[in-house]
Amino acid sequence: MFELETPTAIPETNSRRTLFLILAATFVVVSAVVGLVMWWEKQSRETAAVKMSEGMLRAGNPEYDAYLQREGIKLVTLDRLVVNGEASDRYEYICRIENRGDRPLTGIELRVYLVDMEEKIIVEKLAYPLAAQNLKQLAPGQSITARPTLTGVKTPESDVRDFLCVVNGLRFARP
Nearest to residue 129, comparing CAs of 153, 145, 152, 113? Predict the structure, then answer.
């Protein structure tokens, strides 16, 4: 009476091959996009670090030395945290930076570092708290809280004598 038509089936090996090619192409495209994004982020960070340090005054510069000597900027330690991980530790220095001087600051460079029992530096890093908080400047009388962090520290905590943070550079607003 009724004859059922069966559609001609695509051979299973052909459909598997097509599916494999689609998955492989998707993997290649996603890997390329992820690689491109990671490269772009690295380039952006390096460019930003160069821009952040441009025009920074450091020790030995009379303007910088005079501002620090008058206590124009003060770094107040609030806490020092150590987060122990399986493979490495993370050190976080929490401080308040106060601009007690009479000039607005458009850049602050902090140097955070670990010292071992022999007073040798284990690891150090530069941090830019104004840039990290997307602030254009720190006006006289203002203060901010900064949290510069050292990550991936493989030295055992028992070998660390001290964890320090100092003001390493300043950039003043131009009148």
Answer: 145
